[in-house]
Design goal:
The protein has one domain. The chain is built from ten helices and two strands, in the order H-H-H-H-E-E-H-H-H-H-H-H. The chain has a two-stranded antiparallel ribbon.
Length: 191
């Protein structure tokens, strides 16, 4: 039992390090994974998906980069632990296809519940541009669980939920760490 727990904790640390390391994204190593690219080629090269580069998601990470990171991590989780890796990869790319800057959306529109409403917006946008399977739709609609009360129905759905939370936390933590370093540590040295 102790070995299983230790193994689990080591895997979790490895996943967190992977999510925190943005260099894989900059190097575009996911492009070298032929099986992954075969699943997502039509989405990853689509002009609407590419347009997500203009929106910041968390910290300094763009919505496009965040979705690729969630997609590739969920794909790998499903490959290792079971679940439909193709559906996880595709839904991971589309899970945040809301196509607006959520940081200013509430102020501009009065709609202040982005965390609760964007899964439906992402689903509607994704289904305009791509043929979604029922599993992909379910994953997109329920990826914010437990904020959305209904959990996903499949392992792939839970892989996307986990990958999204891990990547979001890591992207936000990197921003906080950067802010802390600049505002606290460097100011002490400069002041």
């Amino acid at each position: 039992m102790e070995r299983k727990l230790e193994h689990y904790l080591n895997e979790r640390k490895t996943a967190a390090r992977w999510a925190a390391d943005a260099t894989w994204m900059e190097q575009e190593k996911y492009l070298e994974d032929k099986e992954y690219m075969a699943c997502v080629q039509d989405i990853i090269t689509h002009p609407v998906f590419l347009s997500m580069e203009q929106y910041i998601q968390h910290g300094s990470t763009t919505c496009r980069a965040h979705c690729i990171q969630v997609s590739y991590l969920s794909y790998q989780i499903c490959r290792k632990y079971g679940g439909n890796s193709r559906e996880a990869a595709r839904a991971g790319l589309l899970h945040d296809m809301f196509l607006y800057d959520w940081h200013t959306w509430g102020r501009e529109t009065g709609e202040r519940f982005h965390g609760f409403t964007h899964p439906r917006t992402a689903y509607n946008n994704a289904s305009k541009y791509f043929q979604l399977s029922s599993e992909e739709g379910d994953i997109i609609l329920h990826h914010m669980w437990p904020l959305t009360p209904v959990p996903p129905k499949t392992r792939a759905g839970f892989a996307v939920v986990y990958a999204d939370k891990l990547c979001s936390l890591t992207e936000t933590a990197l921003q906080v760490r950067s802010w802390f370093a600049w505002n606290v540590l460097l100011r002490r040295r400069l002041g």
